[in-house]
Design goal:
210 residues; mainly beta; Trefoil (Acidic Fibroblast Growth Factor, subunit A); 7-stranded antiparallel barrel; two-stranded antiparallel ribbon; 1 helix; 15 strands; 3% helix; 37% strand
């Protein structure tokens, strides 16, 4: 688990415009109102980072044995499409054995995944009991600026403390891997999952440099 103490949060009014990976990020948005510290406020206090390039994500079990210190590899699994857009979700490579988007970048708190000869997949807003979703579109949608990386500060140390944890507005502890109700489906990452049916296992998402 991640443990840290915030003595003082400095709230900044930021006007950020970035151009990366061939497009300009429009005005960014959230689908919920944060009542606690945000990724931006933690970054202002040097307790998190909003930008990182060329990494992959893995899921590390909190309450189950892990085969290694990096956990389960994640990829962008399929999730249908509509109106000329393609939808993707974070899935385990074991349940969706195709890595179409091997590179993820974090840009001002938004996630953008890229792959050879493909349009970028942009991380979109996430709600409670919802999958970590991406949209592929031309022109691209605006990334949801809800993410940041939080370095591990465990007082007791850990085998994988060198890897930062992905966070949604400073929350690193509400991700789960959820199995489908039908055999053979994708195992997807869900935020604040309703695990009453016993099909979800708590994980942390590790940021692993490529």
């Amino acid at each position: 688990m991640i443990s840290f103490t915030i003595f003082k949060l400095v709230v900044l009014a930021l006007g950020v415009s970035s151009t990366c990976l061939g497009f300009t990020i429009p005005e960014q948005r959230r689908d919920f109102t944060s009542t606690g510290p945000t990724c931006a406020s933690l970054a202002a206090a040097s307790l998190s980072f909003l930008n990182s390039s060329n990494f992959m994500l893995t899921a590390f079990f909190n309450n189950l044995p892990n085969d290694n210190i990096t956990g389960v590899p994640l990829v962008l699994g399929e999730n249908g499409g509509a109106d000329g857009k393609e939808f993707r979700v974070l899935s385990t490579f074991a349940s969706f054995p195709s890595n179409d988007y091997p590179t993820i970048n974090m840009i001002n708190g938004g996630l953008v995944a890229s792959g050879p000869d493909r349009l970028n997949a942009v991380g979109t807003a996430v709600g409670t009991n919802a999958e970590i979703s991406f949209t592929v579109a031309n022109p691209p949608v605006a990334p949801a600026d809800i993410y940041c990386g939080i370095p591990s500060t465990s007082a007791n140390g850990c085998d994988n403390c060198q890897f930062a944890r992905l966070s949604i507005e400073t929350d690193t502890d509400s991700f789960s891997l959820c199995r489908p109700t039908t055999p053979g489906g994708q195992v997807n990452v869900v935020y604040k999952a309703d695990s009453s049916d016993g099909n979800c296992d708590s994980v942390q998402l590790l940021i692993i440099p490529n």
